[in-house]
Amino acid sequence: MNDTKRRGTGTLGLAFGTLGIVFGDIGTSPVYALREAFEHSGLVLTHDTAYGIASVVLWSLVIVICVKYLFLVMRADHDGEGGILALTALVLPERGKQTAAAGALVALGVFGTALLYGDGLITPAISVLSAVEGFEVATPAFADWVIPVAISILVVLFAVQRRGTARMAKVFSPVMLVWFVVIGLLGLRQIVGHPEVLQAASPTWAIQLFIEHPWRAFLALGSVFLVVTGGEALYADMGHFGRLPIAISWYSVAMPCLLLNYFGQAALIAGPERHHVGRPFYDMAPEWAITPLAVLATMATVIASQALISGAYSLTVQAMQLDYIPRLHVVHTSSTHIGQVYVPLVNWLLMIGCVSLVIAFRSSSALAAAYGIAVTATMLITTLIFYKVVRHRWNWPVWKALVVLGPLMVVDLGFLAANVPKIPDGGWFPLAVGLVLVVQMTTWNTGRKLVAARIRKGQRSAIEVVGEAVERGVTRVPGTAVYLCKDPAAAPAAAITNLRHNHVLHEHTIFLSVAVDNVPRVSHRRRARWARVGHGVVQVRLHFGYMEPPDVEDALLHMTLPPDVQLGPAGQITYFLGKESVESGFAEGMQPWREQLFVLLDRGAASAARFFHLPPDQVVEVGTHVVI
Predict the structure, then answer these.
(1) Which residue from 43, 571, 597, 614 puts its CA 20 to 30 A from 412's CA?
(2) Is the pTM of this model over 0.70?
(3) pLDDT one-digit tens code per residue, 225-246
(4) Largest CA distance in the chain
(5) Where are the domains of the chain?
């Protein structure tokens, strides 16, 4: 299925649809980025420094967004999907061919994924705070209301997530289109009065800034990075829109308007009558327009926050499917768009985190100190994994890969180094969140492998178990039974237990295993495979992509089984699930504290019946004790 048909609309319509989803993070950065570049670096406000910062902003957008993401990285799609997990899936080794280098890359991908959750916490907080602070510019009496209003907006934003993004998305694009036009006009108004600011398009101004003020320019780079933090979001949202619509909307609307605004701010603060940085974004507007602009900025930042929140849900589903986090309750909010999901636990944890950040930091300037370190690290990891892709999937020679990606890696390292000084002032927070999540994700993945290995030790082949049961004259009862198991070649533990205790075997029996492939989606013709066991028993293997909900019942009802195995009416199928009771022991595996963590995570995992979309009144759980 081609890219456009899969998404259900034309490229032109999608191009402007991306404005509301993809460019929220980048599109709201003019509110605070230029101000932070001066305040956090200590640069003295002069004509040369203002133009130098504008030049750094321009070339950062060109190198990071235009060259790295739009021209290069977004070509590395995984069946149309993007994002660091999709990129990591491209370099996953085949089963049985794991190497130390491949394992290190996968670990980096997991770490980058964990860091994005930290970004997902800070982005809504800093975006909403910076916008609400605009009302303080309009009237200083609003100062005491900034924190309560920002918290109220965040609480309402998270509270309405369960309704799904489809309805909200209908107003996203018009609002963001108005936003980009307005910020572009604000900048153009200043540029018309000071056209000499266009000289800053020359990279010589950026170079001069670093020559004359090397240390302060380096520190400013940590804040300038705020203008490109949405690069990873562009890549992650590629699966919803496609690379071409994102590129069209970026070059036709988003980038021109952003540059007009940044250059307009530079023109304003470089003026002879200007002696302090202030809030250049709001200072560009006439006094009568500050309040309406603050309202529009608040709406834009809510949209930017919505994009990050939705991304966190999608990231969670991918991580669940790839077995890096426990099963969680997932609500699919759209019957037509498979990627629109709502994860209640993630939603409320993000809300608590965002509100806590607003209370703790109390201003967008303070939060800016915590912002950037996680995204810079993720961008560097993306470049490293992308190098593996171009070398081994695109067959680039070493010299070409180094010539193309070497400069990009230098830029990534520069941005990362410039954000390192932020760590004591709050940058430690997203790193701590990422570290905690990495420990949890790797513990869960390793623990699941250990549990599977323990279970395999007592497994027997399906043919052997069924053959022995029939020879003993096991009672055959009418109906259809579906036993879920992990190993497609072995008899499910639930079936062995049922035969041992109840001595019955259904007339039609399916031993079912589910595989999540390293692709986003699996076509219908490749969804199911079956093999005969004999005596009315068949083994079925269902394949799902990591972007798909594993709807087992729907897949079974739409597959073709051998004539002698009747699935029967959907309401009369009995599903048998193995329920592992995991206990930490002294067996070789993980450290004791990680075993205890895995046991805790396992107890909190959502029901397998719910995860596999099985009707709850047709499920029978059979217990198995496992010591790891």
Answers:
(1) 43
(2) yes
(3) 889 988 887 787 776 667 888 8
(4) 98
(5) 3-446, 459-627
